[in-house]
Design a protein that fits this description.
With 892 residues, the protein is α/β, with parallel strands linked by helices. It is built from 29 helices and 28 strands. Strands 1-2-3-16-23-20-17-19-18 form a nine-stranded mixed beta sheet, sandwiched between helices. Strands 11-10-12-9-13-14-8-15 form an eight-stranded mixed beta sheet, with helices on both faces. InterPro entries: AAA+_ATPase, DEAD-box_helicase_OB_fold, DEAD/DEAH_box_helicase_dom, DNA/RNA_helicase_DEAH_CS, HA2_WH, Helicase-assoc_dom, Helicase_ATP-bd, Helicase_C-like.
Length: 892
DNA sequence: TTGTGGTGT
């Protein structure tokens, strides 16, 4: 394909003209005191003007192909200066010499060849010991780093990107800031060359905006362009807004959204895209005529904080013009709200009432690179909606998305006459725009040899940072609670043993199982002269942001959930992270000032073996919930659904199978009535939903709804180090029937204590989890009533409760192996060996027949949340499922 | 006799 590049040239004079026109319109419309039409007119003018410029440019200019700007959606263009930056995997680099002498600290420095340096595009290495006393016999950890390299891309060199190696070690270590201020260094993360962020609003109006097409014809790229700043009265906030990198692209973004069905915006952290773009859209009139601009986030906390920020910037009350919706919390006003932030899950639920999302004019899907289950489903559905609603605009925003594959996904081949409204040049091919971020340089260090024990490597690295590096907090990424607790202990001990230099350290664990109070410790600022060391799971990678982190230690691993559709088992396994994750982790070090990231894996591994992106959640999850959601939206051909990442056919088939066995789908794989539709309405795993529906007839819906609420929160128990105390606490609530009944006892106790947090603490129960249980329970009761179920308590008749559980979970029935001395069970469905999880109250009780809620696989398959049943209930509840396997009366 | 990365409706 020909790399055809066209360019839109806009002269300063014309920009001023436009600004004048806009100001005139604004002024005249202000007289009319009609804000809505002002913005609508503004939008029209921008559009008309842009179109005329595009035409002129193509007609008059023969220079299109002389552009020296290479289009690559992954790579930000810096300040319109046409310099391309290599993606870090080609270019793992350290940009400036800061701190190197500190690190070397008199320890030997030697020139070595990197094992993978054979080819000429890789610069030679040097390595050095960071001079620490190892905890083990492993010897000191040796880190290596590459020399600085800066590249510029030139015309005709798309394939070849020359690397310019800078001077060697001695030069680097001499002048600390030698490179700071040079343009376009600092390539890996953030604030490139320190020349960023100076574009004080209109001050950047000297650059010319450019428009480029790439070979795919229609993937557009803008570099910096001047922006027409609006004249609002909120001076300081307005200034802050204008300082954000995204501000320079305001006009470009509005133009792209105007002219393209889908716009993909690649922006690093700190670019301001999430808070600014919805405001730009509003200012440009996209919320006129009662329409709403939506912006989705994967996490509740992000929704709340972004909405609060935007309402502050706009000087409006949260919940009026700017609002947000998350589960249990709708802070919007249907008459007033024009910009609405919401979780992607909420938007999916909204589709069940309004499948075309007709009240939204623009939907911005943020953090799309995370590829969460609901983001992917949402993207698939939005693509479908676009075909019915060509006027709907989508913005896909993400940090490190594979923009081209996303663009390919949204590339529609429409072969029908254009509808009205498309005649103003609306393009169905997605546009891509990159916006640079605003962070600081992060130096990356790799171990020279693979480490065999990342826990010990972690400890020695932390100790050496503490010894050799200037003040600044350390964030360590490990995999789970177990590792983290061990590391905290080891580092604390090591600090005590190593004398005065290590006194000023506060070591804190961070994972979701901690109580809120323990989590909050991590957010308190470190006392004067003390260094905070936070040992965290992935929770600090995206969900929580810690201020004050200067050093990151990355183990290269995280726990990830994988689903095996053949065995129907979800596993939680320690797995290597992706490059995208590694970059995200490193970026956590550059938030307040230049930072350093120590990777406990080799550079060779990072470059050659680490996958560039993680596996989308869609491809490693049980899809039963997702399938029923799509069915409820009327998508019959699930197997043919156009996903951003197709799940395996096995997991699709498995999901359909489960739903069929639950009586949710009929022989034609259509939702049954009423059960199928009822199950789809409930925001739960289909098996739990089925259990609730069955409880209606059995007369125990109140209890079952309570159990369902508890099953759908992570864990109601506090994780504590001394496990014995927790086990003892559990015994206070333990019921012979099993965990579900035990949960009911806990819930009753919680109510009797008047929902007291003190009571929770005393009984090793997670107070926040219980509060969530109450909320979920209320929601489920409301939905159940809407579905026409009767809310009824079975009082103390636990047999009907167990029957209701059986009605939902009959497929998970297990039988104790006769003569088994170690509590081995086999599943009825597939004769798999399983054991009762030690956290269950039925552990070591081993009733003959049990049903489990879920399987967890470690060295054995463990059943979690187990209840004992009578096998005859299985055939009662699911004759279709068990009729082919009559129970053998000869076996005990 | 053993263990719960993180989200979300």
């Amino acid at each position: 394909m020909v790399n055809q590049i066209s360019r839109l040239d806009i002269h300063d004079q014309q920009i001023d003209q436009l600004q004048q026109v806009v100001n005139e319109i604004k002024a005249s419309l202000k007289l009319l005191n009609e804000e809505r039409s002002e913005s609508r007119e503004f939008r029209k003018v921008i559009l008309a003007w842009m179109k005329s410029q595009e035409k002129n440019s193509v007609d008059s200019s023969g220079q299109e192909l002389q552009s020296d700007l290479i289009h690559d959606p992954l790579i930000p263009v810096v300040d319109g200066k046409h310099v391309t930056i290599h993606p870090p995997e080609q270019f793992t680099t350290i940009q400036h010499s800061e701190g190197i002498s500190d690190l070397i600290g008199g320890v030997k420095v030697e020139d070595t060849e990197h094992p993978n340096c054979g080819d000429s595009k890789t610069a030679p290495h040097f390595s050095f010991s960071i001079g620490l006393e190892p905890l083990t016999d492993d010897g000191p950890k040796v880190y290596s780093r590459k020399k600085n390299r800066v590249t510029t891309a030139k015309v005709g060199q798309l394939g070849k990107r020359p690397a310019i190696a800078l001077n060697g070690v001695s030069n680097q270590s001499n002048k600390r800031n030698q490179l700071v201020g040079r343009p376009f260094e600092g390539l890996t993360y953030g604030r490139r060359g320190g020349s960023r962020g100076g574009g004080q609003g209109r001050g950047c109006g000297t650059e010319k905006p450019r428009l480029l097409d790439d070979e795919e014809g229609g993937v557009l790229f803008y570099s910096a362009s001047p922006s027409s700043s609006s004249t609002y009265g909120y001076a300081s906030l307005e200034k802050q807004r204008q300082r954000l990198p995204v501000f320079k692209y305001r006009t470009s973004i509005l133009y792209l959204v105007e002219t393209h069905s889908t716009t993909i915006i690649v922006g690093e952290t700190g670019s301001g895209k999430t808070t600014q773009i919805p405001q730009y859209l509003k200012e440009a009139g996209w919320a006129d005529g009662g329409h709403i601009i939506a912006c989705t986030q994967p996490r509740r906390l992000a929704v709340q904080s972004v909405a609060a920020r935007v309402s502050e910037e706009m000087g409006v009350k949260l919940g009026e013009e700017v609002g947000y919706t998350i589960r249990f919390e709708d802070v919007t006003n249907s008459d007033l709200t024009r910009i609405k932030f919401l979780t992607d899950g909420v938007l999916l639920r909204e589709m069940m009432d309004d499948p075309l999302l007709s009240k939204y004019s623009v939907i911005m899907v943020d953090e799309a690179h995370e590829r969460s289950l609901s983001t992917d489903i949402l993207l698939g559905l939005l693509k479908k909606i676009q075909r019915r609603r060509p006027e709907l605009r989508l913005i896909i925003a993400s940090a490190t998305i594979e923009a081209k594959s996303m663009a390919a996904f949204f590339q529609t081949r429409r072969r029908r006459p254009r509808l009205e409204g498309e005649d103003h040049g609306l393009r169905t091919e997605p546009a891509i725009l990159s916006v640079e971020g605003r962070g600081y340089n992060v130096q990356i260090f790799y171990v020279e040899e693979p480490v065999s024990d990342y826990l010990r490597a972690t400890v020695s690295t932390v100790m050496s940072i503490h010894d050799k590096e200037p003040m600044g907090d350390i964030l360590v990424f490990l995999t789970g609670q177990d590792d983290i607790d061990t590391a905290v202990q080891l580092i604390t001990e090591e600090a005590q043993n190593s004398g005065k230099s290590s006194l000023g350290m506060i070591v804190l664990p961070l994972y979701s199982g901690l109580t809120r109070a323990d989590q909050d410790l991590v957010f308190s600022p470190s006392p004067r002269g003390k260094r905070k060391v936070v040992i965290s799971t992935n929770i600090a990678e995206t969900s929580l942001t810690l201020e004050g982190i200067v050093y990151v230690v990355d183990s290269g691993f995280s726990k990830q959930r994988f689903y095996n559709p053949i065995t129907d088992i979800e596993n939680l396994v320690v797995a290597p992270i992706s490059k995208a994750s590694a970059r995200q982790r490193a970026g956590r070090a550059g938030r307040i000032r230049p930072g350093k990231c120590y990777r406990l894996y080799t550079e060779d591994y990072f470059v050659n073996e680490m996958p560039s992106h993680g596996i989308p959640e869609m491809q490693r999850s049980n899809l039963a919930s997702s399938v029923i959601q799509l069915k409820a939206l009327g998508i019959d051909n699930i197997l043919g659904f156009d996903w951003p990442a197709s799940p395996s056919s096995e997991s699709m088939v498995r999901a359909l199978e489960v739903l069929y066995s639950l009586g949710v789908l009929d022989d034609d794989a259509k939702l049954t009535s009423p059960v199928g539709f009822q199950v789809a309405e409930l925001p739960l795993d289909p098996m739990i939903s089925k259990m609730i529906i069955a409880s209606d007839q059995l007369g125990c819906s109140e209890e079952i709804i309570t159990v369902s609420a508890i099953l759908s929160v992570q864990s109601i128990w506090i994780s504590v180090k001394g496990q014995r105390e927790l086990d003892e606490a559990k015994l206070r609530f333990a019921a012979a029937e099993g965990d579900h009944v035990t949960f009911l006892n806990v819930y009753k106790g919680f109510l009797q204590s008047n929902k007291s947090s003190k009571w929770c603490h005393k009984n090793f129960i997670n107070y926040h989890a219980m509060k969530k249980v109450i909320e979920v329970r209320e929601q489920l009761r409301r939905i159940a009533q809407r579905l026409g179920l009767t809310l009824k308590s079975c009082e103390n008749d636990m047999q009907v409760l167990r029957k209701a559980v059986t009605a939902g979970f009959f497929a998970n029935a297990c039988r104790l192996e006769p003569y088994s001395h170690n509590g081995m069970y086999k599943t009825v469905r597939s004769s798999q060996e399983v054991y009762i999880h030690p956290s269950s109250v039925l552990f070591r009780v081993n009733p003959k027949w049990v049903i489990y809620n879920s399987l967890v696989s470690t060295d054995r398959q463990y059943m979690r949340n187990v209840i004992s049943i009578d096998p005859s209930w299985l055939r009662e509840a699911a004759p279709h499922f068990y009729q082919q396997q009559p129970l053998n009366p000869n076996r005990p």
